[in-house]
Amino acid sequence: MVAALVVGGMFVLPLFASGGPGSASSLTTSATQSSTHYPTIHSHTGVVNAGPSTTTPGIHVAKGSDLFVFVSYVDYLAGGGYVASIIDSSSNSYILLASTNADENHSESLYLAEDVSAAKSLTVTVAFTGGDTTMGGSVAVVDVVGAASSPIDVVYQESGYGMHAAVGVYTNHTHDLFLLGTAGRGAADPFTSGPHEHLLSNGTATSGPFQDGTGYATFYATHRTGSFALSAGLNAASAWNAIAVGILP
Q1: What angle do CA 10, 51, 23 make, to 5 degrees?
Q2: Beta strand pairing status for 53-55 and 192-193?
Q3: Is 91 helix (H, G, I), strand (E, B) or coil?
Q4: Whole-number Cα distances in Å, 237 to 21, 112, 126, 186, 232
Q5: Which one in 8, 100, 165, 181 has a CA-CA gap of 20 to 30 Å to 83?
Q6: Is the predicted pLDDT of residue 3 greater than 70, yes or no?
Q7: pLDDT tens per residue across span 7-50
Q8: What is the pTM (predicted TM-score) of this model?
Q9: Are 216 and 14 in contact, with CB atoms under 8 Å apart?
Q10: What is the pLDDT of residue 5?
Q11: Between the CA of residue 104 and those of 4, 52, 107, 201, what are the distances in Å?
């Protein structure tokens, strides 16, 4: 199995801790939903780090589960860079599901590794390259068990500016597990959950020479159908990016 996905250029087609330049903040916990018949969150983690690469804390990963990785970063328009590669300590292969591209000098992308190997302490490393300065970013990992063999129902992404990040979602399935990744400037953290959502992890750190830094948060929601929005509140008005994914049972 190929150990890395290499991506160049722009994409077509995110308890509280903080740190300064060169430091990292992280959270590692596990969450289990009430029913074993539907996709459930087995474990998750998140980290923010300034520098050319960011590595998450280790988490326990179940055999055959699916790994969803939200990556946010200050993009090349602000002297940052872009994602050069994503690898993990078990040599799983990742595909790009969605990206917000370069909006308001920040970007967010969502990657997926399906049917992964079991691991007692899996870490994910994202390398950034390009731009005048490599500025690093945030990486949040969610390990999901019990999803369908083709797990993706829908993926939506939005970008904007203000105190509220929202992604419109439409699905016909009543038992999807929804993940929402949000990201923006450091002042946006801590993010707060929208209706029917639960916080998984969040954090902020200053990336490179720009003091606006990077903030991120991930959330989950269940048992919603039809047309609705997944959303998050921001601590301060900020450029924001958000990606929502519906995972099939």
Answers
A1: 135
A2: unpaired
A3: coil
A4: 22, 30, 28, 11, 12
A5: 165
A6: no
A7: 343 333 333 333 333 333 333 334 444 444 689 999 999 998 87
A8: 0.82
A9: yes
A10: 42
A11: 28, 21, 8, 23
Q: How many domains does the chain have?
A: 1
Other C-beta atoms lying within 10 Å of the C-beta of residue 21 = 15
Domain that holds residue 156: 5-247
- The token pair at 164 is 């509220």
pLDDT in tens, 89-110: 999 999 999 998 665 567 899 9
Q: Length of the chain in residues, anyone?
A: 249
**Beta-carbon contacts of residue 145 (< 8 Å; ≥ 6 apart):** 39, 40, 42, 62, 64, 65, 66
**Rg, the chain, Cα only:** 16
Mean pLDDT calculated for residue range 187-199: 90
What is the pLDDT averaged over residues 117-130? 92
